Amino acid sequence: MMSLFLAALNQSIVNTAMPRIVSELHGFETYAWIITAYMVTSTSVIPIVGKMGDVYGRKPFLLGGAAFFVFTTALCGLAQDMPQLIVARALQGIGGGVLMASAFSALAYVLPPAERARIRGSSLACSRSRACSDR
Fold it and tell me: What is the CA radius of gyration of the chain?
């Protein structure tokens, strides 16, 4: 659950700071690509990592995904222009997708079905309330 919190916290911070970041990098015309790059890569990597976690084990993907996510977050902070930021966000999306897939598949592996539904519901409620508070 902490890995999901890490990804959600990052999204909250980035969404709040995005207008300032874009104005400093003079890239309003490519503003949408920052978000799109993250979403496309994270969405596309989730089923792949889910299957690979079933085959090779979930722990390496969870730990490696967290390390990769933190590393690419630092790359986003070091970006000097918009193309660098877009590429860093795309890489960060890969790490975010690995975190999401690994965390939820680990929960499914560890918890009984009734507990899975309760935990999934509470995490969904938390993420939805966070998304509503960002607006």
Answer: 16
Query: Rounded to an integer, what distance in angstroms lies between the CA atom of residue 29 and that of residue 106?
Result: 40
Q: What are phi and psi of 75, to 5 degrees?
A: -60, -40
Rounded CA separation 21/62 (Å): 29
Question: What pTM did the predictor assign?
Answer: 0.80
Amino acid at 9: L
Domain ranges of the chain: 2-134
Burial of 91 by CB count in 10 Å (0-12 exposed, 13-18 middle, 19+ buried)? Answer: buried
Under DSSP, is residue 135 helix (H, G, I), strand (E, B) or coil? coil
Is the pLDDT reported for residue 125 higher than 60?
Answer: yes
